[in-house]
Amino acid sequence: MVSIRPERPGDIAARENLLDLCFGEARFLKSSERLREGRRPAAGLAFVAVDHGRVVGTMRLWHVDAGGRPALLLGPLAVDPACRGRGIGAALMRRGLRAAARAGHAAVLLVGDAPYYGRFGFSAATTGALAMPGPFERHRLLASELVPGALDGAAGAILAAGPRRAGEGPAAAGPLAQAA
Ligand SMILES: CC(C)(COP(=O)(O)OP(=O)(O)OC[C@H]1O[C@@H](n2cnc3c(N)ncnc32)[C@H](O)[C@@H]1OP(=O)(O)O)[C@@H](O)C(=O)NCCC(=O)NCCS
Asked: What is the CA(117)–ligand 1 centre distance, in A?
């Protein structure tokens, strides 16, 4: 029986092993990673799928500035190859998107395959004027508006906007920097 629950500190090693298994070292080269490195996920928006006590899926959401509009970046989404095709990816997506909407977030972006993510409401319809901070395939830059019109007029670079991880960057310097 697979359950979806918020990620806990004790899940981190298993999550990282799972991401290594699914993406290999190349995962650190992705442009999406530039928006996540040194940052923490949005509060309450990191989830794991657990099967008999074992982490078999992961998905997280991160604060970004999408060309002047506050948004979340979704990813990585990954499911253990041995557990795919059982709806675990879909369950992680639905849980994450529901939690994001409940928390008042207005839009979610991701870089991924439209044939998969289209079923969750993602398309490239609102991302044509946005750019990732590095190489990306435009047809794979997708978004879903949780609040209709949230990405109207969004244009330009997508920038990291999440809280910095302790010990990394200016936010570690003190309360003033954290408030900036
Ligand atoms: C994409 C992924 C998370 C899906 O996980 P999952 O638990 O197998 O997903 P679900 O069971 O909810 O859905 C499976 C369905 O999605 C389809 N699917 C999976 N990846 C797909 C893709 N890239 N494009 C189109 N369809 C895809 C499967 O063929 C299957 O179709 P079916 O329902 O008609 O049989 C998983 O395949 C994975 O971890 N892949 C490697 C990492 C990755 O590519 N992550 C996404 C980019 S961040």
From this structure: 9
**Residue spans per domain, the chain:** 2-160
Cβ distance 140 to 128 under 8 Å?
A: no
Q: Residue with the nearest Cα to atom 24 of ligand 1?
A: 116
Which pLDDT does position 176 carry in this prediction?
37
Evaluate whether 86 touches 54 at the Cβ level (below 8 Å).
no
Q: What are phi and psi of 134, to 5 degrees?
A: 150, -175
pTM of the model: 0.93
Whether residue 51 contacts residue 1, with contact meaning beta carbons closer than 8 Å, is answered with yes
DSSP structural state of residue 41: P
Written out in words, the top-level CATH class of the domain with range 2-160 is alpha beta
The verdict on the CB of residue 88 being under 6 Å from ligand 1 is yes
30-68 residue pLDDT tens: 999 999 999 999 999 999 999 999 999 999 999 999 999
Q: Is 106 within 8 Å of 129 (Cβ atoms)? A: no
pLDDT tens, 123-152? 999 999 999 999 999 999 999 999 999 999
Pair of tokens at residue 67: 């060309």
